């Protein structure tokens, strides 16, 4: 006697039961995976071996003139710190806002636990002193920063930070940055191509720009313009003037017109043309 085939209703019940079982197994696996991930995350965050305990766990790379200790001091950290809770973006932002660097990359290393920071420094060419402004205590204070060849200015927020730098550029620039930032790249390139040793540019009065030079002391240029290179050439031509003139009697050399330079004597003496030199 041939057995009757299963009733269609029974087949459907079996299929539904199989699907339910598969769903239960799938849900169980998902719960196990989520629970394992949560437990692993908790273990990672609390693992005592993945904590940096001091600045010695911070490795600085890429710096040529900024000391490691100075970079570490600018990190927004309070030790001990759990590596996985640190924000590399916040650390990079803090460094780029407080140090003369263009970019910084922050990486976390778990074994051994350390923070690796790679910085790309700006090459400062001058110390830039901006006009005084009131500080948080209401005291008028000059703003000091570093200037690169392209005119980018990085403030040095504290005098301590300035003193910690191993070597500062010999050139100093005074005046409002808005006055000279557009012309600075050309001015600095012209200075670099010249043999004149300039130690300071006083740009506080744009119509009366003064240079401090090693050769001749103070030189009045007027407004800096197309004749700047010619004015530098004239300073170089007059470099032996201290052998002929007592420079203690000279207040400054006027080179507004480089074709007709003259000495501005101190109050006790008259001006003197240098056209014959």
Jot down its keywords.
Ubiquitin-like (UB roll), 28% strand, Rossmann fold, 10-stranded mixed β-sheet, 2 domains, 277 residues, alpha/beta, 7 helices, 3-stranded mixed β-sheet, 31% helix
Structure description:
This protein has helices at 8-46, 68-73, 88-98, 159-164, 177-180, 184-193, 228-237; strands spanning 51-52, 58-61, 81-82, 101-109, 114-121, 124-134, 140-148, 153-155, 172-174, 198-202, 209-213, 217-222, 250-254, 262-265, 272-273. The strands form three sheets. A ten-stranded mixed β-sheet has the order 8-7-6-9-10-11-12-13-14-15, with helices on one face. A three-stranded mixed β-sheet has the order 2-5-4. Strands 1-3 form a two-stranded antiparallel ribbon. The protein starts with 7 loop residues before the first helix and ends with a strand. The radius of gyration is 35 Å and the shape is elongated. The model has no long low-confidence stretch (mean pLDDT 82). The chain folds into two domains: 49-121, Roll (Ubiquitin-like (UB roll)), CATH 3.10.20; 124-273, 3-Layer(aba) Sandwich (Rossmann fold), CATH 3.40.50. The protein is α/β, with parallel strands linked by helices and 277 residues long. It contains seven helices and 15 strands.
């Amino acid at each position: 006697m041939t057995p009757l085939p299963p009733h269609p209703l029974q087949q459907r019940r079996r299929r539904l039961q199989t699907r339910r079982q598969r769903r239960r197994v799938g849900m169980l696996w998902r719960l196990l995976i989520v629970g394992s991930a949560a437990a692993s995350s908790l273990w990672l965050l609390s693992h005592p071996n993945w904590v940096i305990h001091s600045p010695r766990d911070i490795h600085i790379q890429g710096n040529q003139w900024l000391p490691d200790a100075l970079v570490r001091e600018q990190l927004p950290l309070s030790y001990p710190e759990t590596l996985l809770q640190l924000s590399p973006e916040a650390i990079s932002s803090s460094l780029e806002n407080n140090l003369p660097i263009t970019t910084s990359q922050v990486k976390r290393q778990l074994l051994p636990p350390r923070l690796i920071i790679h910085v790309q420094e700006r090459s400062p060419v001058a110390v830039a002193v901006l006009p005084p402004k009131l500080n948080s205590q209401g005291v008028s204070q000059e703003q000091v920063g570093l200037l690169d060849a392209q005119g980018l200015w990085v403030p040095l927020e504290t005098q301590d930070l300035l003193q910690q730098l191993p070597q500062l550029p010999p050139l100093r620039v005074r005046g409002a940055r808005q006055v000279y930032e557009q012309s600075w790249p050309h001015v600095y390139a012209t200075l670099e191509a010249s043999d004149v040793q300039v130690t300071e540019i006083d740009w506080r009065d744009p119509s009366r720009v003064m240079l401090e030079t090693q050769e001749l002391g103070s030189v009045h240029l007027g407004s800096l313009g197309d004749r700047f290179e010619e004015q530098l050439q004239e300073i170089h031509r007059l470099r032996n003037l201290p052998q002929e003139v007592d420079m203690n009697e000279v207040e400054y050399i006027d080179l507004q017109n480089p074709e007709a330079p003259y000495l501005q004597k101190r109050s006790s003496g008259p001006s003197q043309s240098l056209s014959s030199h």
